[in-house]
Design brief:
Mean pLDDT: 94
Shape: globular
Number of domains: 1
Strand order of the largest sheet: 3-2-1-4-5-6-7
Structural class: alpha/beta
CATH class: Alpha Beta
CATH topology: Rossmann fold
CATH superfamily: NAD(P)-binding Rossmann-like Domain
Largest sheet: 7 strands, parallel
CATH architecture: 3-Layer(aba) Sandwich
Strand content: 5-15%
Number of strands: 7
Helix content: 40-55%
Distance between the termini: 41 Å
Low-confidence stretches: 159-163
């Protein structure tokens, strides 16, 4: 039997990147999946987001494992649409065991308008809250809620909006910092119901968010249009270990652990998957 055999997981941002990886890893270990993605761009975010065909590829990969999947194109900022997407999955599978609130954007650039801050907070924080809140009435004893944070939410040196990160970067970092407090508070309140709440905090992860021109410029602000090769050293300098980034599957292994009964007594955890970024940096924020 798989590590999450018979469970049903609700995963946002599932069309590609970390979300797709989480959906596929959970399916490989026995879970059925309710997968949601916006499958459209957000104007303030200067790298392209997933497309419907990306979500179709997630379906193919999950079904290849022999598990079932229900999908919906929905914006996590829209709680009504998100609830409807979840309801479709519940009608198919009849229950919900695992929530992976993963959808996120990172609009970077010092010249971006204030909408970059708004969109980053609305997707990365409000979207996480919406995902969790539509799911909570359907969770019972033994359920697991997992939120995607970021090393930016743990480091006391997380940028407040100056420099090349700009307003969007400030919104991203704020959202990830608040996820620490939100997940911890919710973990305390849901512990008597035996519902676990944890957050995973990735470092640079090899996804479309990272492999984008705005991110390259953030790590090489001295260059106007740096290539990935030119940004490589900047990426690597962020971690303690000699790697520029981790793979989405590295994050999925942590998600899988937190989704499984192996972590049945683990709640309120802030789990960095960061190749030593936080211990190399200024440390976990106080």
């Amino acid at each position: 039997m798989g590590r999450v055999e018979g469970k049903v997981a609700f995963v946002t941002g599932a069309a590609r990147g970390q979300g797709r990886s989480h959906a596929v890893h959970l399916a490989e270990e026995g879970a059925d999946v309710i997968a949601v993605d916006i499958c459209a761009d957000i104007a303030s975010n200067e790298y392209p987001l997933a497309r419907p065909e990306d979500l179709e590829e997630t379906v193919r990969l999950v079904e290849k494992t022999g598990r079932r999947i229900v999908t919906a194109q929905a914006d996590v900022r829209d709680r009504t649409a998100l609830a409807a997407a979840l309801r479709t999955g519940l009608d198919e599978f009849g229950k919900l065991d695992v929530v992976v609130a993963n959808a996120g954007i990172c609009p970077l650039g010092e010249d971006l308008p204030v909408e970059a801050f708004i969109d980053a907070v609305d997707v990365d924080l409000v979207g996480v809250i919406n995902t969790v809140h539509v799911a909570l009435p359907h969770l019972g004893e033994g359920a697991s809620v997992i939120m995607t944070g970021s090393v930016a939410g743990l480091l006391s040196s997380a940028a407040s909006g100056s420099g090349p990160q700009g307003l969007g970067g400030a919104g991203y970092n704020l959202a990830k910092r608040v996820i620490v407090e939100y997940s911890t508070t919710l973990a305390v309140k849901l512990a008597p119901k035996a519902i676990r709440v944890n957050a995973v905090h990735p470092t640079n992860c090899d996804t479309d968010m990272l492999q984008s021109a705005p991110m390259y410029r953030t790590f090489r602000p001295d260059l106007e249009n740096p290539t990935v090769e030119e940004a490589h050293a900047g990426f690597q300098s962020f971690q303690g270990m000699p790697v520029p980034w981790v793979d989405p599957s590295d994050i999925s292994y942590a998600v899988l652990y937190l989704a499984s009964d192996e972590s049945r007594f683990v709640t309120g955890l802030q789990l960095p998957v960061d190749a030593g970024a936080t211990v190399k940096g200024t440390g976990i924020r106080k």
